[in-house]
Design brief:
alpha+beta; Alpha-Beta Plaits; 11 strands; 24% helix
Amino acid sequence: MTTVAVRGEAVREVDPELAEFTVVVSARDRDRDTTLARLRERADALRQFLERFGDAVDKQETTGLHVYPESAGRRGERVTAYAGSLVTTVTVSGFAALGEMMLAVAGQDQVQVRGPRWSLRPDSPVHKDLRREAVADAIARAREYAEALGAQVIELVELADPGLSGQVEGLLPVGFQPGYGSQSLRAKSSATAGGYAELELGPQRQRVSAAVEARFTITSPTGL
């Protein structure tokens, strides 16, 4: 029995569905309790501020907390102050509010903002569509190879994600490359109600790819 092994692929560029940015809230004082109190107050203020945007914010997660003494002296044994930072990762699906949100957060006291990072949802239908297209591409390739040999495809023997097939080796896995940063940033001169200039963010299109491995049986070649 003659078999043909192929790799089916599909690639598409699509608009992102999510934007993620990181907020670092800091505090510093000679007194440790004061530092912790300020850190807590600023973190609470950030959370309450983000709640104003309602459903535009998918989630806000604390991803880091760092509190440490600052030392001086020859051996560094004399504590001069206490510093702390709290890291929050904010995931946004309402892009219309994203620019205003990031600028307003960045305008708070002792706050750093990094991002945005663009991506698709893990359960985005785009992934399903791409897998279907990859299967269709594998079938089309098998038919092309069979026709080149003067044969026809009979049936599917195996269909697998890349790397799971025992017959086809050295293939790359299904891939998804998230975008980091924005394609374009443009500040407008008009001011928002919060006193911050509007910021129009250009979402970075995402390159999504899928691949499958497949084996088919074909009729006896006649073109050899």
